[in-house]
Amino acid sequence: MGLKIRRGVGLWQGPKGSGWRGEAGERAWRRRRKRAGLSQERLAEKAELHPVYISQVECGLKAVSVEGLWKLARALGVTLARLMRGVG
Prior knowledge:
The chain is mostly helical. The protein has 5 helices and 3 strands. The protein has one domain (3-84): lambda repressor-like DNA-binding domains (434 Repressor (Amino-terminal Domain)), CATH 1.10.260. The protein has helices at residues 23-35, 40-47, 51-58, 66-76, 80-84; strands spanning 3-6, 9-12, 64-65. The protein has a 3-stranded antiparallel β-sheet. Strand 1 and strand 2 (9-12) form a beta hairpin. It is globular and about 25 Å long. 22% of the residues are buried. The model is unreliable at 1-22 (pLDDT under 50).
């Protein structure tokens, strides 16, 4: 369905127009971060990810790896299922 595997790396990229990337997906990722009261830099620090990666995900320039999803969920204090609700 929405999960595509590229050379052994799981990347969440929904079908075209699904909201995973593009304007709807961007708003969902940014909304989650802002709801938690975090800057991109603070979220990146908590998730042990690079701030540029967070920015690229929010702008729809980068797909989120499965590992990245787990790290983001942990940093935001939510389950992975809760994190994904409203993104797709």
